[in-house]
Amino acid sequence: MLLKQLVFVSVSRNCHRKIKLAGSFQRFYCDKKKEVDFSEIPVERIRNFSIIAHVDHGKSTLADRLLEFTGAIKPNSGQNQVLDKLQVERERGITVKAQTASLLYQWNDEQYLLNLIDTPGHVDFSNEVSRSLLACQGVILLVDANDGVQAQTVANFYLAFGNDLVIIPVLNKIDLKNSNPDRVCKQLESLFDINPKEVLKISAKLGIGIEAVLERVITDLPAPSVNRTAPFRALLFDSSYDRYRGVLSMVYLTDGSLKIGDHIESCYSKKQYEVKMLSLLKPQEQQVDKLMAGQIGMVSCNMRSPQEAHIGDTLYLIGQTVEPLHGFTPIRPMVFAGVYPMDQSQHVTLRSAIEKLTLNDSAVTVEIDSSPALGQGWRLGFLGLLHLEVFSQRLQQEYGAEAILTAPSVIYKVKLKPTKQTFKDGTDIVCINNPALWPDTVKIEECFEPMVIGTIITPDKYLGPIMSLCMERRGVQKSAVNIDNERVMLQYDMPLCEIIVDFHDALKSLSSGYASFDYEDNGYTSSNLVKMNILLNGEAIEELSFIVHTSKAQTMGKQMALKLKDMIPRQMVNIAVQATVGGKVLARQDIKAYRKDVTQWLYGGDVTRRKKLLAQQAAGKKKMRMIANISVPRDTFINVLKR
What is the pTM of this model? Predict the structure, then answer.
């Protein structure tokens, strides 16, 4: 009934304000355009902010409530995770892509423009968080009142703190039975020196305390530091691809204004474009005629090639001289995998899909690669294993591209022994992300593998098994801090190759799902690495080789030999599957040949006839083995190489 009790107050000649008596929802309409002119809102009443949190702490739910309380969407519409637009996000229940929404909110009889950016929470998508913070002046640090501070909470806090952003601490899920806000407030105070009195307590699911969050955003966050009288300048911090309009660029205007018909230029590519369309996301796309400094909008300018949209680029009007903005520093990929089409006839389709998808995800690096077994393909770099899985799933769901993904690997550095030949750049260290390119052992002086600092937050009753797991993965403990009476924060220096595949799953299994894990790059360290070759009847198969630490070479060799024995089909001759390191055989499995009873048609006679036939068969098999070409089906390579 309250939704029907509305009062219409005349604001201007052609515009009316529609206010709910309860004061929770406020929407604005115009008689003609049904929308308020965003360009008329002064800079002092603009707030740009992001929501950052650990996975499943309620970022998307809080974003839904903010959209409802500002009237951007209808309350109780039955639609959840409005800003999670990708199918993979709804299926997995996580945020993968940062999304923007421009909201209008009435406070103290004045209209405020709130530009909200909902960011992912998983460590593999920290690239999205870093880019989003460039367009913000503050963040909402969301913490689950039940789970408390998690590993990614710590990482996100210091990421925002390092960018000199205002941080608004908010506790979510206070309606849960097991929530303990006082305990979590003490964690925030001990870890981040946050005053418990400044922490807001809300329930995004029930809508409790949402108005207090909006009020803190308006009162605590500063207005963007921009100049609307200066020449136009904007930061390109995100992009997407539309099959009809080409590349759509998300920009944050720092100076001047931009209108349809203006001609702009890119600082990075020096290419020139004509602005065809300007839009705001509310969260649905709404076309506007003009964007002003301080706003976040979307620009369509007939940018057809995905390579032209460089994240961190500065856009300006043609004929003007401006200083490029401080752009985004790309995060270095940490996990690499080969991507090949299921059939070479699908190569062009897959290439087009990868180009368009990398436009939406600038953290992915692409290099052309080829394999005698799998054909032409690419070597892609990702921030983590979940990043790789989501990319593969989006390829299939959004573009219908079926692809083969090989097992993930990391990038190693190898220092070669001095030779007469010198490298062009004057160094003797090479970077290798493909085991097939690993140099001979006699040429290697020293090997280096990437290391990370892993942060684990766990209840203390799981401390023993988790420490054993980290030591098994060659981890070295750096610190252990008691967050409170029940939880401990551990930091380990660990090799990246030991955690990219199944470490997270093993950690969750040991801790019954209560432990959280986050990691950050920690450079390279010297390590005893070797290349393990797989031989079939003495012939090395480069596609099956991999890099392994010497302490685990024996175990890995046995596992691979057993796996190949089960997968490679039997032939007419015996097949010896061997795992070798530097010419030394560490494991061997034999695949028996098919047998044919050449004496089955004999019905009698002397035994010498039987011996003669068996001798002929033995000689034929020996000759066949010398000239036989072991045929390994493509499906076998796919099953062995894929994740």
Answer: 0.72
